[in-house]
Amino acid sequence: MLAYLQMRKRQTVRTGELTGPLQLTRDQERELFRRMARGGLIARVRPGLYLAPAQLPLGGSWSPDETLALNTLMEDRRGRYQICGPNAFNRYGFDEQVPTRVYAYNNRISGERTIGAIALTLIKVMDERLGDTEEVQTPEGLTTVYSSRVRTLVDAVYDWSRFNSLPQAYAWIRSELAAKRVDAGNLATVTLRYGDKGTIRRVGALLEGQRVKEELLRKLERALKPSTSLIPWNPMKPKRGTINRRWGVVLNEQG
User: Fold this and answer.
1) CATH number reported for the structural domain that contains residue 17 in this entry
2) Into how many domains does the chain fold?
3) Which of 21, 38, 133, 152 is most buried, most CB within 10 Å of its CB?
4) What's residue 55's pLDDT?
5) Which residues constitute the domain of residue 49?
6) What is the 3-state secondary structure (H, E, C) of the chain?
7) Portion of the chain with pLDDT greater than 90, in percent
8) What pLDDT does 219 receive?
């Protein structure tokens, strides 16, 4: 089986594709896939779709890397993805912790999947929430899609409950602005496009504290409707502290 696929330079194989070339019955093919997947020689992407190594694995065990796993899964579903959250935090140097899972926004699948040794947390979003990405080429010639640096910062505020990223994200944003790796205008634009009202409020309060141009603050402010409701600066702390009336944010923890 592996020799057949390697001769044809294929890494994906579906049930039904080997019965003819290898002269197998359906039951024999099914058992072949089952045993090879259990033995770690191939990886199941979904029922009926498998990944195989480009070369015979040393030691008798193989797993795809995160790019091959994600790309194959998304191509099969004709979807789009971008790696986000803890993986992007680590990539851009915001957090030194190396995640054990791969987090990815996508427009097809929600939930957790395992492909070989790759554990995936797939976060299904609307098409319009995908974008502002950076493509990375792997040594094998594959393309990995990551959320951009600025998009990652916005998501750290927007998706704080999923990624446990507040209040650390405020320090990341201040540091990136000070180092000029991120532009305040671009941060505001991406916030308006991919954030919600809470994200706009929090980023607005942060940028006001960074003394950015008033014109930029008004741009964010125009996206908000007048409201008397208040949100906490740090959602993990009690909502007590100084109130920033302009943004409707309770500054319950500054730092």
Assistant:
1) 1.10.10
2) 3
3) 152
4) 86
5) 2-62
6) CHHHHHHCCCCEEECCCCCCCCCCCHHHHHHHHHHHHHCCCCEEEECCEEECCCCCCHHHCCCCCHHHHHHHHHHHHCCCEEECHHHHHHHCCCCCCCCCCEEEEECCCCEEEEECCEEEEEEECCHHHCCCEEEEECCCCCEEEEECHHHHHHHHHHCHHHHCCCCHHHHHHHHHHHCCCCCHHHHHHHHHHHCCHHHHHHHHHHHHHCCCCHHHHHHHHCCCCCCCCCEECCCCCCCCCEEECCCCEEECCCC
7) 95
8) 97
pLDDT, tens digit, 9 for 90 and up, residues 83-139: 999 999 999 999 999 999 999 999 999 999 999 999 999 999 999 999 999 999 999
Same domain, 29 and 45: yes
Over the stretch 139-151, which tens digit does the pLDDT of each residue have? Answer: 989 999 999 999 9
